[in-house]
Amino acid sequence: MVFPGRKLALFVNGCFWHGHGCLRGARIPKSNTEYWIKKIERNRVRDKETLIALQKLGWRVHVIWECEIKDRDRLKENIQALMD
Ligand SMILES: [Zn+2]
Fold first, then answer.
1. At a CB cut-off of 8 Å and minimum separation 6, what does 70 contact?
2. Residues with CB in 5 Å of ion ligand 1
3. CB count, 10 Å around CB of 4?
4. CA neighbor of 63 nearest in space, from 14, 4, 30
5. Which residue of 32, 44, 59, 63 is 20 to 30 Å from 7, comparing CA positions?
């Protein structure tokens, strides 16, 4: 999600795919473990690069994790806080 007027970029990241530090993100499939670790590590590096690139352009970047979406009230508060 991008809000050009506010120079605000919101990313919604899947915990598994983007290697979140929560329980869901820490789970690695038992088969092809090596493959998944490398793949997720690559995603994390790319996320970081994207974030830094946007910040250099003067954007505010906020990541919303999949596990945070479940708590709708908190999510709404967080987004509201970013808009103020
Ligand atoms: Zn998570």
1. none
2. 15, 20, 22, 25, 65, 67
3. 8
4. 14
5. 44
**Residue 32 CA, ligand 1 centroid: distance in Å:** 22
Domain 2-64 coded CATH 3.40.50.300: no
What is the Å distance from ligand 1's center to 47 Cα?
A: 15
Is the pLDDT assigned to residue 4 strictly greater than 90? Answer: no
CA distance 40 to 43: 5
Domain positions in the chain are 2-64
List pLDDT tens digits, range 22-81.
Answer: 998 999 899 999 999 999 999 999 999 999 999 999 999 999 999 999 889 988 998 889
